[in-house]
Design a protein that fits this description.
By secondary structure, the protein is of the alpha+beta class. Helices cover 35% and strands 18% of the residues. It has one domain. It is extended.
């Protein structure tokens, strides 16, 4: 019988996947985006390390 993963294990997998995606985005010179829990804004991180808080309208435009 397979064991179900705990929330702690799933959280760690998510953190590792996010770190991997960030690493690949930085290497490619591509900005990446994330939203913190409870934050209405999306944070954009540019290749130079600068950040910007952005919002999208109902049509998906910044």
């Amino acid at each position: 019988m397979e064991k179900m993963m705990t929330w702690k294990q799933l959280d760690e997998i998510g953190r590792q996947a996010f770190a991997y995606a960030i690493e690949k985005a930085r290497a490619a010179g591509t900005p990446y985006y994330y939203r913190q829990e409870g934050d209405e804004f999306i944070t954009q991180v540019n290749p130079d390390g600068s950040t910007a808080k952005i919002m999208h309208d109902e049509n998906g435009r910044k």
